[in-house]
Specification:
Layout lengths: L13 H12 L2 H14 L4 H13 L3 H14 L4 H13 L3 H13 L4 H17 L3 H14 L4 H13 L3 H8 L27 E5 L4 H7 L3 H10 L3 E5 L5 H7 L4 E3 L16 E6 L4 H4 L16 H11 L4 E5 L20 H6 L3 E4 L14 E2 L2 H4 L4 H9 L3 E5 L2 H9 L3 E5 L20 E5 L6 H11 L2
Parallel strand pairs: 1-2, 1-4, 2-3, 5-6, 5-8, 6-7, 8-9, 9-10
């Protein structure tokens, strides 16, 4: 998005030109302030409106961005830049038909190969958000014809390849985004990014993206730790603070710090002589390059004492943990919802202890249902608490959300309900996950597959 604001100001405004330059440098707050100041005296300048709209979108003020972008488009419908900014905002509001329409109009008005490459990739990004990876790849490939080195396009190509499990090739394309706003790259000192070769020194693998992503990527930790040990080196994991206790127990020969979000390094001096570092998903390009590299076996260990306590509480009938929502509005959370009013066929299928695994307070949702909530386990800031509860379950059924990764990593059978807007790791047609052999996928079709799951439940607990 940062490269598409090329619309020239009506006059020779140094303010707008400078705001555009500052926006391109990534300082969205200053660029937005300058554009807004200029608009006080020139409220009908479409470029200033486009810059301000883009800045608001970057700041998650998407509604304001959308209306500013529409105003710019109404003033200059002949220009591709105004259409692409409107599409950017519409996509942020999950108005995907409108976003596609805007991006196609921008493509029709493109006057340079650079614009054609960017706008084709914008269209691809909508199809990626919709979980239509084959369709997205058509536009990604078209985009690459115009600019084969554009990082965001290469990242999207990686997502398309990952979605069809072309592991070896996919990770190299996906790596294009490391160090961008999509995937932050850290440095603890002057150490280089790890090249995948074990060495006799300290390697740091740090978490990225969401909690579920960290759990998923940790499947390679035993391999990395073993490789480092064989070379006479060691491994440090820097993770979300909520994962520290669970990972410390699970990877006993690895040093774990829950300091991923801290700005100042406060580690012991013995941990600060770092030879190389790498983001957790970047590691997979070295350890998960073919199907056989995914063992599918459990790699996390819940607290045995707390798990035993939960099992004692639940004894007498099966225990099924459930999560009926997932995500936020930024990652299609609106579509990742199956209200408990629709779960009745499942509740009727088997007499069980139904346990909420929602990470937010679900006390209102569960009223009038057989579901119970144990907030000290699910609303805790320590994922180790949640892990013990999940480990006590006989089965986990959940909308696409982090707790499914936790269940899979613990080796607990888990059935994942996927909306049409699913992510790359689920592909378009698969019914399994290579990370966890105990996972099974159920896809939304013309309706949610509730009755299918209910029938499978009866067979599972026969």
């Amino acid at each position: 998005m940062a490269q598409v604001i090329e619309l020239k100001p009506a006059g020779s405004s140094e303010t707008v030109s400078k705001a555009q330059s500052i926006y391109l440098s990534g300082d969205y707050a200053q660029a937005g302030a300058m554009a807004e100041m200029y608009l006080r005296e020139h409220p009908d300048d479409p470029q200033a409106l486009s810059i301000l709209a883009s800045c608001f979108k970057q700041a998650d003020r998407t509604v304001l961005a959308y209306h500013l972008a529409k105003a710019a488009t109404s003033m200059r419908p002949d220009r591709p830049e105004t259409w692409v900014v409107q599409g950017f905002a519409a996509q942020g509001l999950w108005r995907m038909d409108e976003a596609l329409d805007c991006y196609r109009k921008s493509l029709q008005r493109a006057s340079s190969n650079k614009q054609k490459g960017l706008y084709n990739n914008n269209i691809a990004s909508v199809y990626l958000d919709l979980g239509q990876f084959a369709k997205a790849e058509e536009y990604v490939d078209e985009s690459l014809k115009f600019d084969p080195e554009e990082k965001n396009t290469r990242h999207n190509k990686g997502l398309c390849l990952l979605a069809r499990r072309e592991w070896g090739e996919a990770w190299n394309w996906y790596s294009a985004s490391i160090g961008s706003s999509q995937r932050t790259e850290f440095r603890y000192g002057q150490e280089p990014r790890w090249d995948g070769k074990p060495f006799a020194g300290t390697l740091v693998v740090y978490g990225e993206q969401g909690l579920g992503d960290e759990v998923c990527a940790a499947s390679a930790v035993p391999d990395i730790a073993a490789a480092q040990k064989a070379a006479g080196g060691r491994l440090i994991l820097d993770v979300d603070y909520r994962l520290k206790n669970l990972f410390s127990r699970s990877f006993s020969d690895v040093t774990v710090h829950g300091t991923r979000w801290e700005k100042q390094l406060k580690w012991p001096e013995s941990d600060r002589n770092i030879g190389a570092s790498i983001a957790c998903f970047e590691v997979l390009k070295h350890f998960r390059t073919k199907a056989e590299d995914f063992p599918g076996t459990p790699y996390l260990k819940a607290c045995p004492d707390r798990t035993a306590m939960w099992k004692a509480l639940f004894k007498g009938k099966p225990t099924i943990g459930i999560a009926w929502t997932g995500g936020t509005w930024r990652n299609a959370g609106t579509f990742r919802q199956l209200p408990l009013t629709e779960w009745k066929p499942l509740f009727d299928a088997v007499d069980a202890n139904w346990v909420s695994l929602q990470y937010k307070d679900a006390s209102k949702d569960i009223e009038g249902t057989p579901v119970k909530q144990y907030p000290w386990a699910t609303l805790s800031k320590d994922y180790d608490d949640t892990a013990a509860l999940v480990a006590s379950c006989d089965l986990v059924i959940g909308m696409q959300t982090s707790v499914n990764h936790l269940a899979g990593a613990l080796g607990i059978p888990n059935w994942i309900i996927l909306p049409k807007t699913s992510q790359w790791r689920y592909g378009e047609t698969y019914d399994d996950l290579p990370w966890y052999s105990c996972s099974k996928l159920y896809r939304q079709g013309s309706s949610w597959p509730v009755q299918t799951i209910a029938n499978d439940l009866k067979a599972f607990f026969k």
